[in-house]
């Protein structure tokens, strides 16, 4: 049961577990062979520090005074241990072996921890080495929490925060609440809010528990169309039916959703989305469907169990990198050339789009190919049209989804514009701009072939969520 909760009811495959175990066994072949070969020889003299001598004992039968049978039935591994070393590394092991209620057990069964994760914890205790990978880090965090190894637990949380993305944010949200890690929980919410549609459409969303589902559906700051929220809830319901061994019928989906269905703000959908989607899904009762149609169209609106107030979403912020703008006759020509700038930030943000200049001689329509790259690899691009009213204002263009930007790494923002050649351009550019709690740094890009740089040119604004 604990293992099911840990892995979001989707434990790793036995093949993956076996491979990880084999890696740990291979790492200790040298230690074991050294011990066996030297027998009664002074092997201790080969290692100058206590850490190195303890490392020889890691996963080694030599002088072992306790053994652990680790893993669920059918997937166990017998692991040797040394009580003194374990007690020095964990207060739980200290109580187990030397406390008032200590029992003299030669073999201890641990069915709720996976062998690779238990070995990762022991490697830290014996060798002072942290060896984490994406496949086992959650299980290692569970082991570190269970045996109160706080520095290893913090390393696991840091690893998870670094690898956090829209694909795994919902699952990690569920696990962070289980492990009582408020910082990780907050990071998960930041990703889910900013990249809500990607997170809701991810495979991991279907693996969350019912309580986490409700907390997401309640979220006021989700940046998602309500139709996407509705479709995600139905996908979750189908997966939940499978977990409960129920046929995934419409009635059963409604059954497993229970009161969570009323957390979806169906009346805030566009009428077309409701009519072609939610109204024909079968999940709503006939009375609910009829009342919502009346709510859309009638002047005397019925009372609904569904919230009719749209979510606030996140307010986009704008980083403006120029202190002024100007225009001159024939000053700025495009002709298919690229305007580009590099930027870096000091904390994780999500780039939603750019603010671009427009025509300086009356209204005009522009076609823009916008792109965001990291180390030469495109992360997002879009071909979009926008209308300029002839003012010196900036006009927003948006990516399909906000793009996660990591701190202390340079990214390249680019645009290829096609439209009226007489346009505004930026002047008095800044190399560093403070926007709220986020600091942006700018530098010239080698991709820029049309004159844009730090001091002047195009791409005056980066639109982002933080």
UniProtKB/TrEMBL annotation:
PROSITE patterns: BTB (PS50097). It is found in: Cytoplasm. One of its GO terms (biological process) is cerebral cortex development. Its main location: cytoplasm. GO terms for cellular component: cytosol. Keywords: Cytoplasm, Neurogenesis, Ubl conjugation pathway. It comes from the Eukaryota. InterPro entries: BACK (IPR011705), BTB/POZ_dom (IPR000210), PHR (IPR012983), PHR_sf (IPR038648), SKP1/BTB/POZ_sf (IPR011333). SUPFAM superfamilies: POZ domain. Residues 64-134 form the BTB domain. Adapter protein for the cul3 E3 ubiquitin-protein ligase complex. Promotes the export of zbtb16/plzf from the nucleus to the cytoplasm and targets zbtb16/plzf for ubiquitination and degradation. Up-regulates neurog1 expression and antagonizes zbtb16/plzf, to promote neurogenesis. Interacts with cul3. Interacts (via BTB domain) with zbtb16/plzf. This is BTB/POZ domain-containing protein 3. It comes from Oryzias melastigma (Marine medaka).
